[in-house]
Predict the 3D structure of the following.
Amino acid sequence: MPLSEARGAGARPDALRLDGVGFSYGRHGVLDGVSLRVEPGEFVALAGPNGSGKSTLVRVALGLTPPQGGEVHLFGEPPDRLRDRWRVGYVPQRAVVVDQLPATVEEVVASGCVARRGWARRPGAADRARIDQALEVVALVDQRRTPIVELSGGQQQRVFIARALASEPELLVLDEPIAGVDAESQDRFRDALVTRCRSDGVAVLLVSHELGAVADDLDRLVVLRGGKVVFDAPPADLTAEGVSLGIHRHDLPVWLEGPG
Amino acid sequence: MSLPLPWPFDREYMQLALASGLAVGACAPLIGTFLVQKRLSLMGDGIGHMAFAGVAAGLLTGVSPLWMALVVAVAGAMTIEWLRLRRRASGDLALAVFFYTGIAAGVVLTGLAGSLNTGVLTYLFGSVLTVSPADALSICVLGLAILAVLAVTWRALFAVAIDEEAARVAGLPVDALSLGLAALTAVTVVAAMRVVGVLLVAALMVLPVGSAQRLARSFGATLRWAVAIGLGSVVVGLTLARAAALAPGGTIVLVAAATFTATAAVDLGRRRGRLH
């Protein structure tokens, strides 16, 4: 039984809900009637071949791009009407780090608190506690004063996850966060997500090709192909079809790229 | 009336130059740190050329060139940023269009005003040694206003500078903050116009930041180093200018450039040392 059912989460609005969302760039259709729900405390992965519309879906879901058809709701509100936007945490596909920027890990993570606190206010004790906790979750407490450019790619990605966690969001959207990340960082990353989900009831939407690290923890897997949802069920159902999620076995990527 | 300061700041004109220079030496690198991070290093240059059109319009109409430049520069800077935010034009293309329109309008307006007079040259190349007490006061007021706004907004500006989209998702007013930074850049350019001239304004926004990035290991330290190098360049530049009768604006920028070269060499040596 998914954790969300065990909690009786039905009384609260979905953290994220897309109903019949359509989007196209000119004549090139990208999303075609996509419906998707992520409930509070639910851990959902979104997979799909390159060009299937995953990144566009994320942008539409976060309110960065308005849909051309259908509806998007974050916590029961259209994205542009949601007042407490800090309830949504976002880890972009490739966070921008200017090579020469000597910002420390702590400074980057602290920037995640600014919106929740009110942008003109100085950080208080509550902010410092949130920053400490976010650094602990991604196991970077010892590197807090290290310039971010001196970290490995995997560690940098963990910094940006911590930045998203620093506002204590209720929905976390991560776009390909573990592409090319070392094994230790993948394990830390898995622990961080599962803790937020299981202990704090945070809803997680993880967009990724590589689901091996989290395969056993997912409540649902949604597969997008050609702009349409072609699979939306617990990952065990996919395993029953003979497709595994393990990165070392490569079945999922092969299945995703196969004939539709 | 002059204050009892040691050479080279013992004369009133040097003290007015020092006050104006220090205001600009602190503000320009602070604003520049955010511009460099947003890859908009040449923003100050583009706005300088628009400010030149404002100066020419002021000289033509008899309105204070400083305040006319302020209006034109702020309006132009916010339009450039609005176009970039709306993705109507890439940052550098929008900048180029306004850059050339500004300088062309400045040339035409200067022609209408009579001829290329010394008033125009004062703003093109800077003339900090002839700053009047009223101008020095205006520059210091503009500088204090910039510092006050940055003291409140720098954390939010930093969040936007490192990741505009994540800041937008989190609910920060990215458009308002970006337009505000553009307006602050324009105010800094206008304040710096009399000190180093519109042609060299951007140098004081970028060179101290380039040096600071090589010395500092945090964003906070980058801001502090950039200000220290900006202030140091002004003091050393004015001293050299008086001692050797050099053009003060150019000397200040050359000191900042020499500091950049020195920090780059030290940084390179440190990296090589780490490899061996």
User: Anything to note?
Assistant: The beta strands of chain A are 16-25, 28-38, 43-47, 69-74, 88-91, 171-175, 203-207, 220-225, 228-233. Residues 183-200 of chain A form the longest helix (18 residues). Residues 37 and 194 of chain A are 19 Å apart (CA to CA).
